[in-house]
């Protein structure tokens, strides 16, 4: 099944052409890297797929649905049911502990038994012993695992990650990629990961390379 299809997608910011006529197809269950120099359009590509930005021209289908023509409220519902975004900065709620950071998301999305689900995920992420800690009491790698746990609360079919290891050392980066890979293999989640880190390329089943907004 096709997870993501881009047809002739371009994105301009004023007179900056961030993406130029991109055609791309990602199948469900793929583990894909997006690589390319700074400013080549990696983040823009992910934001367009998530529907956080609209393309200037072209169309994007996610799991058979055209996200470019959807209204904002439909789109946020669609996103919530299908996609999660993982960022370089973790954006955790600093005043809440780890368990609460997960349960709050579950409650907002009306997940069944959010606390039970959060505890199961923390166990899976090997973070149970940190559940009562606040984010600032955790290492960068642990904070990113919490952010991933929060993303997993909504059982996404697709995870879009923008430089998810950008703030981490090599050891923590490998741990995050091993986690992504097991989620891909065990739960069939499709991954699209933008990264600069060439040491992580061996994880990818396929690499999409961008230069100056074009696929190369
Ligand atoms: N909101 C915006 N307004 C104006 N220009 C933008 C905006 N977002 C991105 N751009 C421009 O679009 C181009 C592509 O940016 P993008 O962030 O997608 O690249 P990137 O490959 O993710 O870079 P990096 O690796 O540095 O994060 C750049 O020239 C950037 O300056």
UniProtKB/TrEMBL annotation:
GO terms for cellular component: membrane protein complex; plasma membrane. It comes from the Bacteria. Pfam families: ABC_tran. Keywords: ATP-binding, Lipoprotein, Nucleotide-binding, Transport. Residues 4-216 form the ABC transporter domain. SUPFAM superfamilies: P-loop containing nucleoside triphosphate hydrolases (SSF52540). InterPro entries: AAA+_ATPase, ABC_transporter-like_ATP-bd, ABC_transporter-like_CS, ABC_transpr_LolD-like, MacB-like_ATP-bd, P-loop_NTPase. One of its GO terms (molecular function) is ATP binding. Belongs to the ABC transporter superfamily. Macrolide exporter (TC 3.A.1.122) family. This is Lipoprotein-releasing system ATP-binding protein. It comes from Thermocrinis minervae. The lineage of its organism: Bacteria, Pseudomonadati, Aquificota, Aquificia, Aquificales.
